[in-house]
Amino acid sequence: MDVPEFDDPKWIMDLAFLVDITKELKVLNLKLQGPGQLITAVYESVKAFSTKLRFWKTQLSAKNLSHFTTCRSLVEQMELIDLQCNSELKTKFREAQGNSDKAAQFLRELPPCFPELSKVFSRLMCLFGSTYLCEKLFSTMKFNKCKFRSRLSDAHLEAVLRVSTLNSIRANMAQLCEQKRCQVSGKK
């Protein structure tokens, strides 16, 4: 049976919103059920739900879908489909495959029409980079702050850590040499 509504992205988004709200209504319904419920507890549950509704309204008006898992997932899926169908971005992605630096650059430079995917990718990229950097930092700190270097102050340790974690910065020797003037000694 052909259902034309399934071709309408707005209708599908409304359906996803209905799914998310129905989940929340189910949670409220379960809180209101059961024997021995005091009216104060029931009132508090309904009041909390009313406050959540106002909060969700402001979140939705700001296009923040963080509390609506089905809507957020649907938006991410729609963006992913758009990304997969974009021949220019597909070519750039193929060129970046196998090279983690190029892949990271591709993900960082996604066009603004992919806001949800950009958020997901940035969270993902930070996750792996930060654990590696933390481990590297603690290893360096352990190496530098040992019993033989007990007079190393916190300020010195901070300076050592800053320098040791910036090993990806390379000096441009050609440019530095060009800027340096040669000093010729007097001729005899």
TrEMBL record:
One of its GO terms (molecular function) is protein dimerization activity. It comes from the Eukaryota. InterPro entries: HATC_C_dom. Residues 105-161 form the HAT C-terminal dimerisation domain. This is General transcription factor II-I repeat domain-containing protein 2.
